[in-house]
Each structure stands twice: as C-alpha cells, then as structure tokens.
TrEMBL record:
Pfam families: Cu_amine_oxidN1. The keyword Isomerase does not apply. InterPro entries: Cu_amine_oxidase-like_N, Mao_N_sf. Residues 1-19 form the signal peptide. This is Copper amine oxidase-like N-terminal domain-containing protein. PROSITE patterns: PROKAR_LIPOPROTEIN (PS51257). It comes from Anaerotignum neopropionicum. It comes from the Bacteria. Keywords: Signal.
Length: 512
C-alpha cells in the first residue's frame, strides 16, 4: 500500500508540475499569479480555429494502427465513423467566459461556425456551491450542427422534420437543465459551505509559487523562453515525454525535498478549505509515513519511469509523439493578458490537424448569477427518452444471464440506428427467475422496452399485452409481485426468439 501511494504521488507531481524553476519559468508563473490575485471577477474571450484534413487523418490513423499491430479488419472498424467524410474541414469557436475568482462561479457563452454557417451553442454555468447548468439552446445548437454534418445520410431519424420540431419544443420548455448539483455527489450543506473559503483563494497563489520554488528548485523544462512583454512555451511530443521522465528522475532523487514542499502546500490548502482537525491529522500521518520511507518514493518513480520508457519505445507511441507540436505566447495586454496558441498534428509532410487560438483575459465586474429556474436532469432525460422511443424505437431485446450465484441478468435494448442521445443500444440490469429448471424473464421490463402496453388483471393474477387488435394473456409465474414469462412464451407476441449459449452463459434475443 505504501509503495502504491508513493507511485501515485510521483505521478501527480509530474502531471501538476509541468514547469520548472528557472528564472524564466518562475517569471511566467508569477506573471499569471499576479494577474489572478488582483481579480475578483475575470473575463476571458477569444476565438479558436480548427482545421482538419479528414483524408490525412485516415492515413494517420491507419499508419498508427499498423505500427500497433492492428489487423486490416480492426483498422477498417476504427475508420468506420469517418467513411462518409472527406476532404478538408474547418470550424471556428467563439467564446466568452466570466469567472468569479472568489466563489469559483463560471459562465460560458459559445458559438460555432462550421462550413460557413454559425451555430448558437447557448450558455453554460458552473458554481462550486451549486452545480452545473446547460441551456436548451446548447443542445439545440449541437443538434443542428450534428444534423448538418450528417451530410449524405438523409434517412436518419434525427433528420426527420417532425423529430426536429418535437426536439425544439422540448428544448424550448427546458431553458436550463441542471446536470449536477453538489448534493448529487453526497455532500452535506456544511461540506458544501466549506468548499469555498471566505475571501476566496488568493492566499493559495503564494502557496503555489512557494511549492514550485521549494519542491523543484534547480529543475527546468527548457520549454519556456522570454519574449517582449511576456513568455513563449514550445514543446513537441518527444520533449514532453522526456520531461515526464526527467521529472520522475528528479522526484526519485529528491524525495525529501518534494515531500516536504507537498506537505506544506497541502496543509495550506486544507487550512483554506476549512478541513477538520481529524482530516488534517490523517493527511499529516500519511505524509510522515512516506517521509519515513523515501525508498518507496524512489521505487515508485522508477516503476512509473520504466512504464513510460517502454511505452515511448513502442512504434505506435513513438509515431504519435513525433507527430504533434505545441506553441503558446502569453503577453501582458494593459492590465490583462493575451494568449496565442497553436497545436498541430502532422503525418510526414501532411497536416492532419491544426488548432489555433487567440484570447484575452482581463478584470471584469459584477457577479456570475446562476439560472433562477431549471429542470432536473432526470426530467429532461425522460423527455428525450420519449422522443427516442417515438422516432427510434427498440427493435430487439437481448437478455444475458447465468453468472454463478447471481439472480440478475444484463438486458440490452437494440435500436435501428444510433440514438441522438446515446448509441444503438443501452444496457440495464434486471431480474430473472428459475422454476423447475425452466428460465423465466421479466414480462413488463421487456415488453415495455419493446413499446408494448402491459396491463395487470389482479383478479385473474394475469398480465395482458394490450394492442389495438385486442389483448394477449401472458401466463407465467409471480415472484416478489412481478410477472415472469418463459423465454419461448414471448413468441405468442410475434417476437422471434433466438436462444444460445455465450461463453458459458445463457442468452436470449427477442426481435420484433
């Protein structure tokens, strides 16, 4: 356990410390920290351009897959989603973000332009104490974009005019959907209140700087250089991989230094977050145990380094690392910052993907106000499920059972095509029953999944399937108040029943 904790700590340190402690690197960090520390409200805006050569991407995926040892069939499967898309594609994303730096409340407004057409992607909110909200306009914009990108497939139900009208009506009724609240994560009101310290997080900026200075003194990435008014960061795949290895070496060779700085920093964090004395004591005990066994830190670092080196040595990973590059320039602009970034993937002389962005960050005013009213994610999902059942109904149900000592089965609902809201199938867990060596499957769960109306006659203790042409009695067994029917009895409803053994389990597929 001690070695696992040490290995985890090494990984976290390397992920969070992708900067060094040269004067240039610390200057870059300090510039950002100074700006954030002066802001109660931060406003960011900008534009992101994405250019993709789909044909070059197909070649790129094929080359990497071959290097990884994939078969032709596996490669064809991986390219299936791109088979109807060709040529060069481009998109532009315009965004505006407002952030309350003290309370960690965020607002995002976004538009996407694709193939010359602009899509309103609505707005989204996040609040540390409240939760995550997304607007109905966001989903409508995503639907319009997906529908227009579908191109040749005009038979899909998502391009059906009536589906679009029903979807728009449902989204108009759901101006905002609350995707998650902090209470959904099991937090109490007291715990939620402690998540945001009184006076904000300003005190931690100095702690972060001290952490880097104390934990990684003398370490440098060689990726940051000084330019007029700011700093430039340049990296390619090989350099990033080597940096990860160098960091692991540094952590393994300086465990006392890294652990001491980490302990100090985390104690500052726990103080700001109003952690209890018991929580602080438990963390301190863990860190003390690690400091008493620095051999575990070195072993953990070496273990992760070996895994990374083996991965880098593989042909497929090496090809990926050789294919991408990144460059960013961050400069002061008045009382704020301007950033220009470029990320690219190339395959030989061909550009596969190029992402460029230009944005500004400056002090703002006012507060981020969460939506006054919203619908729950469960209520919204119920509306979307109803739309799916109407336009893309279940065509078959597969039930898999037979795990030793388990009375539950895996139920998979198959649809004619990919659902706009999920996939071609969705899974659930259901019960089944065995009597006199015969298997019985749950009637209501399966039949309602197939779009049937199930009616229970309590006097007769019999379930009926109700259709426009009459009722069909489905006699089976009753267990825990539920009706179960033998597998073959589903043929009475006109279903095709296929029964087979799968890897030692039993499977029945019921098709309309």
């Amino acid at each position: 356990m001690q070695k696992k904790l040490a290995a985890l700590l090494c990984a976290v340190m390397c992920i969070t410390a992708f900067t060094g402690c040269s004067s240039t690197e610390l200057g870059y960090l300090q510039m950002s920290a100074d700006l954030m520390n002066k802001m109660e409200v931060c406003e960011a805006s900008g534009k992101v351009n994405v250019d993709v050569d789909v044909d070059a991407m197909k070649e790129y995926i094929t080359d990497i897959s071959k290097a990884a040892g994939y078969t032709s069939e596996m490669i064809d499967d991986s390219l299936e989603s791109l088979k109807d898309i060709k040529g060069k594609k481009s998109a532009v994303l315009d965004y505006a973000i407002k952030m309350d730096m003290n309370n960690l409340d965020y607002y995002l407004d976004m538009d996407v332009t694709y193939d010359g057409k602009k899509y309103d992607m609505g707005d989204m909110y996040y609040a540390m104490k409240d939760g995550i909200y997304v607007s109905g306009n966001t989903l409508w914009g995503a639907y319009q974009l997906i529908a227009d990108m579908a191109e040749a497939d005009d038979t899909s139900y998502i391009l059906n005019e009536n589906f679009a009208k029903d979807l728009k009506a449902a989204l108009d009724q759901s101006k905002y959907i609350k995707l998650m609240s902090m209470k959904d994560l099991g937090l109490t009101d007291e715990e939620i209140a402690k998540m945001v310290p009184e006076g904000g997080f300003g005190d931690l900026y100095a702690s972060v700087m001290d952490f880097y200075k104390n934990a990684f003194s003398g370490f440098t990435t060689n990726m940051v250089s000084e330019v007029s008014g700011g700093y430039k960061i340049q990296a390619d795949g090989k350099a990033v991989a080597q940096l990860f290895i160098d960091l692991l070496d540094y952590v393994g060779n300086n465990p006392d230094t890294v652990l001491a700085a980490t302990t100090t920093y985390m104690m500052d964090v726990m103080k700001v977050m109003n952690s209890s004395e018991e929580e602080v004591a438990a963390f301190k005990a863990q860190m003390d145990a690690l400091q008493a066994d620095t051999a575990s830190i070195k072993a953990g670092a070496n273990s992760i380094k070996l895994i990374v080196q083996q991965a880098i040595a593989s042909a497929s990973v090496s090809k990926v690392l050789n294919s991408f590059n990144y460059e960013a320039t961050i400069t002061k602009e008045g009382a704020g910052l301007n950033s220009k970034e470029t990320f690219g993937i190339t395959n030989g002389s061909k550009s596969v993907l190029k992402v460029t962005s230009n944005g500004t960050v400056k002090a703002g005013s006012g507060k981020v106000t969460m939506p006054i009213s919203s619908v729950s994610v469960d209520a919204f999902e119920a509306k979307m499920e109803a739309l799916t059942e109407k336009y893309n109904p279940v065509t078959a149900v597969t039930v898999l059972w037979g795990w030793e000592g388990d009375s539950e089965a895996m139920l998979t609902k198959e649809r004619a095509e990919d659902s706009f809201f999920s996939g071609t199938s969705d899974d659930d867990i259901t019960e089944y029953a065995i009597q006199d060596g015969r298997v019985y499957l749950p009637l209501r769960v399966i039949c309602e999944a197939m779009g049937e109306t199930v009616e229970w006659n309590n006097a007769e203790k019999t379930a009926y399937i109700v259709r426009t042409d009459g009722k069909t009695a489905m006699k089976g067994i009753i267990q825990d108040g539920k009706s179960f029917i033998s597998v073959r009895d589903f043929e009475k409803l006109g279903y095709v029943v296929e029964y087979q053994a799968v890897d030692g389990l039993k499977q029945a597929t019921l098709t309309k």
